[in-house]
Amino acid sequence: MESHLASNGIVAALFLAAGVTVWMVRRSRLWSSAFVSLWRRRRFALLVTGVYVAVALLDSVAWVGGDSLAVDTVARHEARSVIDRVFGGNQEKSYSAPFAEAEFYGGGDLRYPGRHWLGTDMIGRDIFYLTLKGARVALLIGGLTSLIAIPLALLFGISAGYFGGRIDDVVFFLMTTLASMPGLLLLIALIMVMGKSTLAVCVALAVTGWVGFCRVSRGETLKLRELEFVSAARSLGVSEFQIVMRHILPNLMHLVIITFVLMFSGLVLSEAILSWLGIGVDGSWGQMIDQARNELSRDPIVWWNIAASGTALFGLILAVNFVGDALRDVLDPRTIEDER
Amino acid sequence: MGAYVIRRLSYGAVVVFGVLFLLFILFFAVTSPDDIARKALGERVPPAVVEQWKVNHGYDKPLFPAPGHWADNMLVEHYRRMLTFDFGRSDADDTPILERIRKGMGPSLALTIPLFVLSVLVAIPLSLLVAFFRETYIDRAGVILAVLAMSVSVLLYIIGAQYLVGKVLHWFPISGFDSDPRVIVRFLALPIMIGVANGLGGDIRFYRTVFLEESNTDYVRTARAKGCGEIRIMSRHVFRNSLIPLLTRIVVAIPFLFTGSLLLESFFGIPGLGAITVDAIQGNDFSVLRTMVYIGSLLFVVGQILTDLSYALVDPRVRLE
What separation in angstroms does the CA of B287 have from each of A195, A233, A283, A314, B291? Predict the structure, then answer.
């Protein structure tokens, strides 16, 4: 019942992390010039991504009470987010078309005529409201999965690349074995085995997703290990741990960011497929699209559910893909050299 | 060459052993046979019935080897059955799994082989074209279109095309399957088109990057300097030298043709291996799911070996030693 407090805490932590990141980016000429050129190239995509993030954050800050829109006494004792308070609560009994004055089938009266900009779904929930709620789910899937997968990949990749020998053999074997199992099937198997929950989906996506980045960070570490500043540090007697933290890890950061953004869109799209198979995360756009399969075969058809969730999903993925491509151009030293 | 093949095969065997171990952990240690039985029978079944079900399905032995049952336990049994392709019966409806796989292979291949060939035949010429017009508006438009196409969820492709072509235009049946060669095209045309469209964006982007990387090499510049035509450069210098990354992407995909397409098959009612897998997910059929993951992994390992061998065919620099 206290989950909204945890959610609020995470939002606060995110703001703190964002603040620290901005401060560090501003201190470093390399990173701030990268950001400036990213902003110049992909202003619109960055802004669109920002809107999605803002909606997700507004849906994560929640508190109990003080809500005039709450329909019944139960709802009055539940924590409701900013999005719930502004857009929630206008529940109908059945389908209604966008801006409709009456119910879609049968033409019964609506409680809130003309107020449903994107219509309502089968049990009368406002589609605009549900679409906004989906942003949080999508970002949660992408963010939580990356938070599990990327540190895991870095840990294994760096230790394999830096220490070599037995450790490398073991990590390499683990990577080959996991990569040999067909991704979608392994994903499904993991979720089936762990039970269906948001965390299970994210863990499963992370387990199937970390191998690619592990391979990249292993290869990059192998290269970095041979560079002069690393051997200089080693001959000065700097400890292995210090070398990894000071000289290897910072030189992998640009790859971390590129991977995070490029991985993100793939994760959200995978969740849509999982939703369709019935093992996705509750409240995701994938689930809304899944419902639309039946709605399109109704007569007259219900098109607004899939239109809204499909567009929202497409918009996020497109914006993130554009940002990711530009990031790769901006941060990858190989392409920077090409431009000179 | 012979020594290389043997080394490659033996590492493949080690990987298959690893895969089987992970599968065992997933399907026997994380979900115990009791869980599987409960899911198949329902929660409110007396323990005696659960025990009987476990005996019937061969789930009644101790999990790991230990004194007293070194050979007679689930782990050894799991390896023995998987390696001899003795997959047993489905947890959900008791049908023999090998039989189902044999039946599903045909429809799956009828869908995936044309889909695969068409994808390659469409994507490579298009990306050569885009790479040929590099740094012009055609290239830029091509890249943006590819990103747009990549950003659409496969679900939207399927639902949208099924609605438009099947329901509004009535060109093809919405779903179903008939292996009669005269009508099979009518059932497969739509899923194949959707499959090609879904993969096209990512393929074009990948191939274009490969071709562009090759276009920036010294020998391409030399060829241009000595007066080679652009078309000759594209076909002789760029395309030939891009074959290694192209093959990596293409040959690796071949084994997966046998596992079918999860989404397309279940959406269009094609009774292939993908549809079997989806049924297994919906029916909590762990034995079928386990088998499908195993077969997929086995095929992947074979595909990896094939890819490595195909390098030797296209690139004389690769000496397999």
Answer: 17, 54, 30, 36, 6
Number of folded domains that form chain A: 1
Q: Which residues of A217-250 are buried (b: 16+ CB within 10 A; e: fewer)?
A: bbebbeebbeeeebeebeeeeeeeeebbeebbbe
| Tens of pLDDT, residues A218-273 | 989 998 988 899 989 989 988 888 999 988 998 898 889 888 988 899 999 999 98
Which letter does DSSP use for residue A62 in this model? E
Q: Which residues of A touch B82 (CB under 8 A)?
A: none
This prediction has a pTM of 0.85
Contact A278, A184 (CB under 8 A): no
Cα of A242 to nearest chain B Cα, Å: 34
ipTM surpassing 0.95: no
In a domain, A8, yes or no: no
Which structural domain range is residue A206 located in?
A: 141-318
Which fold would CATH assign to domain B100-314?
MetI-like fold (1.10.3720)
- Tell me the CATH number at A235: 1.10.3720.10
What's the N-to-C CA distance of chain A in angstroms? 57
Q: Where are the domains of chain B?
A: 2-83, 100-314
The strand pairing partners of A79, in sequence order, are: A64
On whether any CB of chain B is under 8 Å from the CB of A318, the answer is yes
